[in-house]
Every structure is written in C-alpha cells, then in structure tokens.
Amino acid sequence: MQYTRACLAIGGLLLTVACAPETSPTAALESPPDTAPAPAGAIDRLRLLNVASEPASWLTPGRDFGKTHFSPLETINRGNVSQLGFAWEFDTRTQRGLEATPQIVDGVLYASGVWGAVYAVDARSGGEIWRFNPKVDGQWGRYACCDTVNRGVSVWQGRVYVAALDGRVIALDAGNGEVIWQVESIDDKSRAYTVTGATQVAGNVVVIGNAGGEFDVRGYITAFDLDNGERRWRFYTVPGDPAKPFEHPEMEWASKTWDPNSRWDVGGGGNAYDAMVYDPELNLLYVGTGNAALYNQDERSPSGGDNLFLASILALNPDTGQLVWHYQQVPGESWDYNATQHMILADIEYGGRHRKVLMQAPKNGFFYVLDRQTGELLSAEPYAVVNWADGIDPESGRPNFTEQSDYTTGPKLIYPSMAGGHNWNPMAYSPLTGLVYIPALETGMIYFEPTPGIHEYRPKEINQGVVGIFPDMLADMPPGLQAMFPPLDELMAGQPIEKSRSVLRAWDPIKKRVVWDVERGPWWNAAGVLTTGSGLVIQGDATGLLRVYDGDNGDLLHELDTGTSIIAAPSTYELDGEQYVAVMAGFGGAVKWQMYPPQTAAYQRGNAGRILAFKLGGGEVPKPAQIPAVGPVPEPPSLPEGADVERGGALFGQHCALCHFNSGRGRPPNLLYMSESTHAAFNAIVLQGARRPLGMPQFDDVLTLEDAEAIHAAMIGQAQAAWSQQEQQ
Description:
By secondary structure, the chain is mainly beta. The longest helix has 24 residues, at about 705-729.
C-alpha cells in the first residue's frame, strides 16, 4: 500500500485518490438584502465566493479564499509606481516579529501582532478604531521556538477570530473589539504547545492547529463552532501510544506506519502550525502538517515506516473532521522538512484540462501541484537547490532519497537547510502571468547527531535530537565543537556550493521552471510577496526597503526606504478611488528575532513595530532615529570562587541559547552587556520571574539555584574574555 495518498475505509466510506469528495458546500448564513449600512466585518460565504466583484477589498489573509495574494487593482502600475510614497503609519507598540498580512473590509484594516494582539485601523488614515491585547503570560515565550508571532485573523460575519500564543481561540466583535467568547485549544499544558498560526473559517467552524514540534508535543487540529466556541471535532496529525485507545479511525490506520515502540514520550510532532486554506466550493479544508519529534527516524521510529501524517497535506471534511485524502511529501521525515508553508488554490489549464489545483513550495525544495479535489499529484519539481532526494516518482509520489540525506553515518551537508527552500513568508500567484512568486532560499545545513540513539527526553524543552549548523557558522565555533565535524571542504565535496542566499523567484507551475530570479542577499532576508493586476510584484526586506518589481521579468521599478525591517507580505486595497499598499513591519521569527544582523533596519534603527501604508503622491516615509552603536562591554564582576563555568555553559546551551545568542544586539538582550543591577538580580530573573512581564520566562521548574549560579558564572566568564580583549585593543 502506498501511504503517500489515502486509500482507506472509514465508517464504510472508501477514500481514494480516484474518489471525488462530497462537493456540496456547507450551508452558511448569508446576509439578506438590506439598505442599512453593512456592519463591521460583514463577510459571508456569498461575498467570499464573489470576491472578484469587489477588487478594492482584501477579505482573507491572502485576499481570496484561495489565498493567492493577488489583487486585480491596476491604479498603481508600471507607469506611475515611481510616485508611490508614504500615506500613514500605525504604531503596534511592539518590538518583535510581525508576520500577518493586513485584511481590509469596508474601510477597516484588521491585522494581528505578537502574542495574538489584534488591531482595527481606519484604512484611510491609520487612525486606531480599537486594539485587543490577549494578555498572554510572558512565560509562554519560553516555548515559542521562533518568536511570539501571529500570522493572521479570520474576519467573518461581524466577528474577528484570533488565536493567542497560549492557545486560546477568541471571537471578537469586529466593530468594537470586545470579546464574544474564548476557548482553550490546548488541553495538555504539561507540554510545550504554542499557537502562532492564523485561524481558518471553514463552513460553520473556525479551525486552529498548534506549534511545538521542536519541543515535546503531538500535533492536532481543532474546530470550534463559530457562534459559541463549542468544540466540534479534533483531528490528530500523528498517532499516540498504540497501547492506548485511538482518538479517531485515521489514527489506528496511521499507527501501522509507525514502530509500535516509537518514542511516544517525545510526542511525535506533525504540528499544523500554519498553512490552512478552505475551498467553499468543494467544502474541503486543506492543512499542512509539520516536522517530526524526534527528528531522526532511526531513533523516533526504529523499524522505519512512513510515519503518517508527518510532512503531509491533509484534505478534511470541515463538517465532521474526517480525512478525505492526504498526500505525504516526505515519508519518514527526518530533516525538519515540514509542509506547513503557504498553500494556494487556483483553477488552471494543466495538461490540456481545466484543473482545480493546490500549489505549495514547502521546505523540502520541491514545488508541488496537486488536484485539490482528489489529491492526485500532477507535478513535483525542485524550485531550489536540493540534494536529499534526486526527484519525486510521478507514479507513487514518493521521493527518491539519496545517500547524502543520511546523516546517521556522520555529519552531512544537506540541501535545503532546516530553514527550507521556502519558509512561512507567503508566496503569490498571478493568474495574469501564470507565475508563482516565491521568497525562496538557497541554503544548505550540516546535520549531525550529538548523541546518536540515546536522546534523553526533557519535558517542555527542545527535543530535536539532531543539530543543524549553517556551513558559514562552522569556522566561528569553539575548537572543541569544530573537532566534532569533518573539515568543511570535505563536507562540501561534490555538493552544491552556492553561498546561502535569499531570492525572489518567479516559478512557472505549468512548465515547471524558473522564469526569473532577483537576488535578495543573505538567507534571512526573506519576506512575503504581493502581486497585482497591473503586473507588479511587491516585497519588503529586512533592510527596511519596500521594492516593486515588474512581474514579467523581475526588473526593479521602484523602492522605498521605510527604516523598519519587513518580513510579512503586503496587501493592497482601494478607497475613494485611491489605491493603497499596506504592510506590517517588524523583524522576528526563528533566529531573526534573536540577533539582528548589522545590515538590518532593526539593528540600525530598532525594531518598533508599525503598520505602514503607501499611495501615489505620498511623501517620504518617516524613519525611526538611528540608535547608537553597541558600546563597550562593561567591566563584569569577579567570578565567584569555585564557579563551575563549564557546567554553566552547557546549561546555557540547553536552556538559554534558543533566545540569547550573545552576539550583536537583538530583542533578547546580549548577556555580555549586563549591568551591575542585572548581575545582582540574575537569580531573581531566572528563577523567580522578575522580568516575566517583559517576556523573560522563569525557569524554576527545570533549574536549581546551583544551576542558575553556574549559568551566571558562565556569562561572567564570557564577559570577562570580551572585556579583556576590548581593553587590549
């Protein structure tokens, strides 16, 4: 049996790729004719299906139900885009990553921010209408591998649905921001779950997944009633211990693809932390699932198996939560190659036939086109540098693994890296050019297991079991760690040698080839994309530039220096005959929030979050003031007598290094620059939560007083070395 596509019987219903799913859309309330002004957030099924009739709006995170990130607006075009300038700004009062795409409904801009905050803004002026703070305990930041971000809201029938980082799903009144209901989506708080994805309305439910596959969690998707928040169903993405009852029939079937003696204690992963899209015509909810926990299959599921539903696309019936079809991109996933990247639904001519397709450029470097009604694989070709597989078998849909993909025999340089050939930043599809514009990454990573086969489970801690290092990091590592790896020349022999980089890539999904590329610099300089009916492609970057390209050939047409780093995707809308472009600006996500590279606006001007809007005839963008250069390391206190610096360094790497890189400047402070008062309060900060309101969690559940003192000693030792070197210059 091929597990890359579904073929199973559940409750007497045969599900195969040859079977068409039920196409009758879920009944939904539709607004009756009314001459009164529409209430705030008045989107319903009929309006969403007819989004083409109102090009001025942006009704979902990707504008339409297919989330194409395409707008048919043409007012801003090749001939006048040089006149694009500043219209207004809105202060989010945050200092972390902003990843959502603004939605514009009847003159109101809705957007989400860190922790799950929501902003309703006058789309003409940038004036605040209301803002909502979910008041998440800063402790939750400890479990967010990749910043306390949020990727969007759902505006539906007068409500705004958002998920907070701590897992609460909240329904807000679209007119005033008041809470209508809130429910918990995370039941087991003993595990390191967080929620960073956008909610998804699907029929009569609002759906959310969760994150935490790097820690110790088992993924699932939960659907709640739109009206009252009652739980309607839950679909687990990987099975639990088979010695316990299965939650639903699909889990019994999926368990046959796992070793019965798998590392169930670690959780399994498979989290649906982003990438959901709903087709109201087919009444299908599509969900991308995540990476494995533990990463290495040899330890996670020793006897092998496909390990469903890791790194898969699931098509679910939103009325029941039952699986209709699935496609697994990476059987036995071991490389952090999740399938949680942005998915686009489109109707295209493919192979001489009109096809309803789903398109995705996931982390693994292959661009997938699937028939979204049946799950049939139409194509899968590499859009980025790939060496873990030398192709996807068109019949079985399975990858042809290469010897290079196996890092259990020693460190291997594998392409793409854990950052992927494309990460969370949304791509865009233009039905006019037929091209998909991808914020692509060309990155390799050295994978290795520090302790093969003997990973010790640590509750609510990182439990990857595998370490990934970018090649250019190897030379900067301490000699003791460098000795664990072969020479870099040996690792790179015969492998792609492209320097890690970010590109804006125009991909033809029909001809399965790159049409054009635009170099965007280092791999971390990726941002989401917007494309328009006038043939423009718009993308920001971490240096603070908002650039406008010609969608046909990639020529740069215009750029604006905003002074704030941008990683999110812009949107565009029209009011009173004037077209605007809006984008959330704020650096963050993964390693980006831990250390601001010197080239970034966040490093040079700080990281105050803003929503920025632009229009033709606008002015110069007001930029934050330059911040002073990093000053000298202050003289640190003396090391306590008998301090165990070596042990403290190991504890720091295990518990603290996820956030504190101690290099340059970033949101989490560089601890080499601790003040005298911070040194004095170190134990209170680490163990008692003295700075918990500022987002610094406390660690008294995993660290003792002796542990904290050892970590402090290690920081003093590093600061002394830096201070001594500084004094000698």
